[in-house]
Amino acid sequence: MVALQGLRTVIYPSPDLAAAKAWWTELLGSEPYFDEPFYVGFEVAGYELGLLPDAEHAGDGALTYWGVDDVAAAMATAIGLGATEHVAASEVGGGIITGSVRNPQGAVVGFIFNPHFRS
Fold first, then answer.
1. Could you tell me the pTM of the whole model?
2. Mean pLDDT across the chain, nearest whole number?
3. Which residues touch 78 (CB under 8 Å, ≥6 apart)?
4. Pairing of the two strands 63-67 and 7-13
């Protein structure tokens, strides 16, 4: 069993990062709180909306991450139940760890540990 802590983050593949950032800034009416060439992050009602210019699997569309205490353990449990690794668990900066699996039905399920997230 994996104790999901709720939705945390949605990442949109954004090959044209400048255009995506401009569009989301206009839509949300606020600037990103994190703005680097490798990732742009907006805070939306306590959640993360991210733009990723070099998403490994852009054809999968937006990726939703569920909060967990241990990403590797959550992935191992899911894999034990028939999922396959999509993106290996790894630290992406600031102590944030993400990883994802493809469930037996083919959907991508992301897991995230973010020590900065307000629970």
1. 0.80
2. 90
3. 2, 101, 103, 109
4. antiparallel
